[in-house]
């Protein structure tokens, strides 16, 4: 009887944890990419996107397994805010020997990933909003679709998750941009699997599990498909455990479905 009661209690706790709402209180206005099966992408950001051989490598691993036509370029600068990036230059097809210059547009989608505290730092908020608007306009003029990345809270400041998400969503809504809610997915993962470390020892940059979740979120949003069941385990630092990738894939798909109302 004691074993049965324990099993029931554990099941109830897991159900309650799984049923918790996402941390954001501001709802996204854009819930669909507007294009089907994009084939090229540009990732603009900083070390959050560059760690563990780059989030593009995780996305590439997933797309190769599914034979999804996809290629991407990543352009990052250490500690970069959105204002550091000359996005117009990145999207100008006049560079000698640039293979992407043959495509029109050069990229179907462009991810914008800013400095980790930009959306909530009092001194940086105005600049963040300014460059979300400017970059979104530039990206659209180049024929691509902008996607704004909502990053995660530091490991020692989980209370920042909601503010980071809400302020990023507000900036995106003001410019009719889709948000990739990676920070919300980090929080969901930690609710269910607090043992799975999502940050590096600096409590800021993503662990291999964090980069995998980031890539799985990209896959889910770009192709509106679940990554669940895919065998790719990452490969830069070291492959993740099978149980870990199953968990991360489930969290990625659950988060995007709830966030966008799919």
Structure description:
- The chain contains nine helices and five strands, in the order H-E-H-H-E-H-E-H-E-H-E-H-H-H.
- Helices cover 44% and strands 9% of the residues.
- With 262 residues, it is α/β, with parallel strands linked by helices.
- It has a single domain (28-260), classed as 3-Layer(aba) Sandwich (Rossmann fold).
List keywords for this structure.
262 residues, alpha/beta, Rossmann fold, 5-stranded parallel β-sheet, 9 helices, 5 strands, 44% helix, globular, disordered N terminus
- What number of structural domains do the residues give? 1
Fourth-tier CATH superfamily name: SGNH hydrolase
Percent strand equals: 5-15%
CATH topology name: Rossmann fold
Rg of Cα set: 18 Å
Fraction in helix: 40-55%
Measured between the Cα atoms of the first and last residue, the distance is 41 Å
The total of beta strands comes to: 5
CATH secondary-structure class: Alpha Beta
In terms of structural class, how would the helical and strand content be classed? alpha/beta
Low-confidence stretches: 1-19
Largest sheet: 5 strands, parallel
Shape: globular
Tell me the number of helical segments per DSSP (H or I, 4 or more residues long): 9
- CATH architecture label: 3-Layer(aba) Sandwich
Write down the overall mean pLDDT: 92
Order of strands side by side in the largest beta sheet? 2-1-3-4-5
Protein name: SGNH/GDSL hydrolase family protein
Signal peptide: 1-21
InterPro entries: SGNH_hydro_sf (IPR036514)
GO molecular function: hydrolase activity
